[in-house]
Write a structure and sequence with these properties.
The complex is a heterodimer of chains A (205) and B (266). Chain A is of the alpha/beta class and 205 residues long. Chain A is built from eight helices and four strands, in the order E-H-E-E-E-H-H-H-H-H-H-H. Chain B has a single domain, classed as Ribonucleotide Reductase, subunit A, CATH 1.10.620. Chain B contains ten helices and two strands. The mean pLDDT of chain B is 92. The chains are: A alpha/beta (205), B mainly alpha (266).
Chain lengths: 205, 266
């Protein structure tokens, strides 16, 4: 079952039935059958983030309302973006249910570097599913968190085109880009968890 | 060709959608965000949502460059030679050349960051500051307030590029920042020359600048604290001719704007 929270939106003009439909279609694309999708409608563009965990076999997606919002028309749903973002999140849930991701840390412990690689792979699969993905945005995101180097660009091509990867593959890619990342260690090996920190702050707020 | 072109008549194609700053202020989500601890608002790579915040700001810079081009261009045309010196118009024409180049650079940087033209809504308050019918007031609105803000924005973006190790972003912002310093200096010089014998007009112009500076600091957007994504670039503003007292005043105006925003959100 795909469950949407909240049941209705009050701060943004999203039609909950439409978001629910998009979430169900995204789950079907990814092969996920059981998940709860929480949309944090308090967060606008450009405060975007999502986490995609699994608890007792059930997908647990938390997503900023900004990920679904039309940046040109505040508080309005952007259907194309919603399809991409929810499908990417569902694909990451699907990954977590595979044996190859058994060793993947919880979302709250995922480094920016590893998250960026995982999201790149998810968006690449969205593109092959025919969704309106912005490839260059993903390339920039990977460069931002893995370094502006030729090794990162090569990693992007691999992630974007890959059909199957494991958690160890993603870590190896992150290690390879870190080895040539010219930034100071703090930036290059950042372990802050941006998405998770927004979510936790939301919960504590 | 029409003089004093109102903001509604600016040329834009179907890619662009405008939003009113009042709508942004009235957004019910603002109060909720104010209650939450989302950490520093500074634009830094390890801050939450750095990816889309930087892309959004880059698109805002692009729109700002278009409006700065339009503002400087209008000043070349809106005033007769007996109203403003020809040399001032020539400076504005040179500025148009710079702004055009900045628009092109900003488009390229947008592509670099994966942003489409028109992906974010356009706010037109920059151009509206450039519509004052008094040439001296317009000069302070555009060349000291707007271009001053540009110094702050470019410096913030340059530092973001440096911190994230993005050589393209850092270099481009540094080059544009150098131009903005000359634009502000131009405004400061012409303000002094055109009001040398008219202290009352100079005071009106500086008061207009204060109003515009407060508008540009709305919601704590620009300031010196952690709640401001755009940091006041004191060093580069000094190079552009701002005195320490003027910089302190802008910092104070920014703090007032942030306090107004906090009060408005309860």
């Amino acid at each position: 079952m795909i469950e949407l929270r909240p049941e209705t939106f009050t701060l943004v003009q999203f039609d909950a039935d439409e978001v629910r439909r998009i979430a169900k279609e995204a789950a079907a694309r990814a092969g996920v059958t059981d998940a709860v999708v929480e949309i944090d409608e308090e967060l606008p563009q450009p405060i975007t983030a999502f986490v995609a965990g699994v608890v007792e076999g059930r997908g647990q997606i938390w997503m900023s309302g900004g990920n679904l919002e039309d940046a040109r028309n505040p508080a309005q749903l952007h259907v194309d973006n919603a399809e991409v973002e929810l499908t990417a999140a569902m694909l990451r849930v699907r990954d977590r249910l595979q044996p190859g991701f058994a060793a993947a840390p919880d979302e709250s412990e995922l480094s920016d570097r590893d998250r960026a690689a995982w999201e790149t792979w998810a968006y690449g699969r969205c593109a092959r599913l025919g969704l309106a993905v912005r490839e260059q945005r993903s390339r920039y995101a990977l460069r931002l968190f893995q370094g502006f180097t030729d090794v990162t660009d090569a990693a992007f091509e691999r992630l974007w085109a890959a059909d199957e990867l494991t958690w160890d593959d993603l870590v190896k890619i992150g290690d390879d880009t870190a080895a040539v990342d010219p930034r100071p260690p703090v930036a290059a090996n950042r372990v802050a968890t941006r998405q998770a920190s927004i979510k936790e702050r939301a919960a504590s707020g | 060709m029409k003089k004093m072109l109102p903001v509604e008549e600016l040329a834009r194609d179907e890619r662009f959608v405008r939003s009113e700053i009042t709508d942004r202020i009235a957004d019910p989500r603002n109060d909720r965000i104010a209650e939450r601890n989302l950490g520093s608002a500074r634009l830094e790579p390890d801050r939450p949502a750095a990816l889309d915040r930087s892309r959004s700001l880059m698109h805002g810079i692009f729109m700002g460059e278009i409006q700065a081009l339009e503002g400087a261009g209008r000043t070349c045309f809106d005033f007769d030679d007996d109203e403003v010196p020809f040399a001032l118009k020539l400076d504005m024409a040179r500025q148009c050349w710079d702004e055009s180049r900045h628009v092109e650079i900003s488009v390229k940087l947008g592509e670099h960051m994966g942003t489409e033209i028109g992906e974010y809504a356009e706010q037109t308050f920059l151009y509206q500051a450039a519509c004052n019918p008094d040439a001296v007031l317009r000069l302070t609105g555009v060349n000291r307030a707007l271009e001053g803000l540009a110094i702050d924005v470019f410096n913030t973006m340059k530092e973001f590029g440096e911190a994230s190790g993005d050589p393209v972003l850092a270099a481009c912002e540094d080059w544009m920042l150098a131009d903005e310093v000359t634009h502000v200096k131009m405004g400061s010089d012409w303000l002094r020359r055109m009001t040398a014998d008219d202290p009352e007009r100079r005071e009106r112009a500086l008061e207009f600048q204060r109003v515009v500076d407060k508008l540009f600091s709305i919601g704590g957007f620009r300031g010196e604290g952690d709640e401001s994504p755009i940091q006041l670039a004191r060093r580069f503003r000094e190079l552009a001719g701002f005195s320490d007292a003027e910089l302190d005043e802008i910092a104070e105006i920014s703090e007032e704007a942030a306090a107004d925003s906090r009060a408005a959100s309860g």
